Amino acid sequence: MISFLLKDFLSLFAVIDPIGLAPLFITIAGHHSLEEQTRIAGRSVLVAASIMLGFILGGNFLLRYLNISIEAFQVAGGVLLFKLALDMVFNEPGQPTEAEEKEAENQEDVSVFPLAIPLIAGPGTLASIIILENEASDYSFGIVMILAGAIVVLLIAYALMCLSGRLAQLLGQTGINVVTRILGVLLSAMAVQYIANGAVVLLKNTPSGL
């Protein structure tokens, strides 16, 4: 159980990357007052938490409705996470596109877009949640453990967004880049394991004549 809790926390922490989120938050909401920045950070975390909760409670139902096996989703989610991990290692992860930045500038409330979606509750986060939910079926309180891990990571993200100015000064851009790349390497290893686990089951269930 402890190992799953640790895996749950590390998976969501690597995908959401609260440390890398801090400088992005300054870029998006830095022109607001400190009090307004705190409110924006709180709203973005609450919106992201609602989306993640929805996937925790209804993700598997959605897969069954669409007739998608958890193994197929595990492979697809692993590929998506691996792409995200490569971006974290070689590029700048989670950076909004130029069109997204312009749209965000024209909106008064940036807590929903682009902070909650896609920077916090992005595709990688949602894929991780459904994969973790499937693995949690082996534990009596699996869903509770996923929720606990998600809450801890979101609280860390909220705290770092509120302290983003000081954090950026403390770590510097180089420090933030180093931490982000380390998380990217860890996430890539998790992604490969997801792909391998799902592929093994899919190959076993494939008729030998195909």
Break the fold down into its secondary structure elements and pairings.
Elements: H1 2-16, H2 18-29, H3 34-65, H4 70-90, H5 98-105, H6 111-120, H7 123-135, H8 142-162, H9 164-205
Helix pairs in contact: 1-7, 1-8, 1-9, 2-6, 2-8, 2-9, 3-6, 3-7, 3-8, 4-7, 4-9
Overall description:
This protein has nine helices and no strands. The protein is mostly helical and 210 residues long. The longest helix is centred in the last third of the chain and has 42 residues, at 164-205.
Biggest sheet features: none
Instruction: Output mean pLDDT.
Output: 82
Number of E-state strands:
0
Element string (H = helix, E = strand): HHHHHHHHH
Please report which band the strand proportion falls in: under 5%, 5-15%, 15-25%, 25-35%, 35-45% or over 45%: under 5%
Short structural description:
The protein is built from nine helices and no strands. The protein has helices spanning 2-16, 18-29, 34-65, 70-90, 98-105, 111-120, 123-135, 142-162, 164-205.
Which terms summarize this structure?
globular, 210 residues, 83% helix, mainly alpha, 9 helices
